[in-house]
Amino acid sequence: MASTQVASEKTIRTSGARPGTTLAAVSVVQFMVSLDLTVVNVGLPRIGHGLGFSEMGLTWVIHAYALTFGGLLLLGGKIADRYGHKRVMLLGLGLFGLASLVGGLAQAPGQLVAARAAQGIGAAALAPAALALLASTFPGGKERVKAFGIWSAVNASGGAVGVLVGGLLTQYAGWQWVMYINLPMAALALALAWRGIAQDTPAARRGRPDVLGAALATAGAALLVFGVVRTDRHPWTSPATLITLAIAVVLLAVFVQVERTTKRDPLIRLGLLANRSVAGANLYMLLFGGAMASALYFVSLYLQRVLGGSPARAGAEFLPFMLGVVVGSTLAVKIGYKFAPRNMLITGGTLAALGYAWFGLMRSDGSFLVDVLGPSVLASVGIGLCLAPAVSIATGGVQPHEAGAASGVLNSTRQIGASLGLAALGTVAADRTGHTVTAGSLNDGYALGMLVGAAILLCAVLIAVFVLPRPAPATADAAHKP
What we know:
Strand content: under 5%
Order of helices and strands: HHHHHHHHHHHHHHHHHHHHH
Radius of gyration: 21 Å
Number of helices: 21
Helix content: over 70%
Structural class: mainly alpha
């Protein structure tokens, strides 16, 4: 163990990297990317009114970002490995900041959706490059556990803070500021990365990036979400829905075939998914991402549309959720030396599922203290416990030249899972609400959505139990080593 620690420190010194600055830059990047997944949620009603969105069109303010982010993460990870993680992160930051400016200036629905999609493209370059930089800067030992714990805390709290900040900005400064807020963060991350992160050596170039594969993956995921979202107008058994979903499946199947046969550098080596730890962690995160996105969406709407709170108040009432995620992430670091990541996923997923089931008891005549506070704390602590162990499992056994691709796969499954989960649970909630919209019918829909989310989390726990390999007897540090 001591030799590993010394070797890690020697690697950092000889590379010219500044570990503290690298961690700071990566944390700012991840916080910004996570914040953008939720910052618009509380402001959606005013965004829809201000730009003239239809009810169905408004959901694409969320989906446009999540789908391009998730669908292009594989390509982003491959490009980061090929051309250098620092270089790709800097380019992604520039695109993300520019798209945020354009989104704030949008005057029509199409302009905002396009800007959100461009943000997703920038985030797809940022996230895998940043995570790969973190993994290479902290290759093992206690410093790795600590670094990933900090990363998971800012990652998770970014989503929760996004709801809080989104509410305050929407009410007191205008919805445009949920886009403009990214500009100072992007500038800070650029400054830190430009001066504090050493230029890394790209992997050996084996061929041109597989752009076709990225297009197929993104289009297939988008059509899948589109088909699910439209079930409020076209039933599941209707020709429109069946044809849309069938085309989506075909595109995803062609993507797999392209990855197997392409003469270009494939987005992902399919053999990577044969690794039981990598496959299990990604299945876990697919379900986990869908459930987590639904909580932020349904609870924010419950606070405003059922309990009648303002955007700023609804955002403030998410503070316990944010703090619970931070507490869970911090706890994961402190006990991560003693417990295997697999056991942490089982424990955290179970706590989160219990919190979601508690949310399912929400009432139309309820209150924040009775119906929201308790389940927020329980679910968020469980969520915080899961994030760092999932990353550690998915990337710990990956070769250095595939670090960007592996992190891209993990982030991709989470974001696509978030979009698919939100689409599916949103459809379930809308069906329960029915055509007569009242506080009571909305409450019934949101409560059912949270109960289904609890069932999804239990499925994730079962994956951790039966798919992820049991840890071999070893020290806690060894359980976290790559």
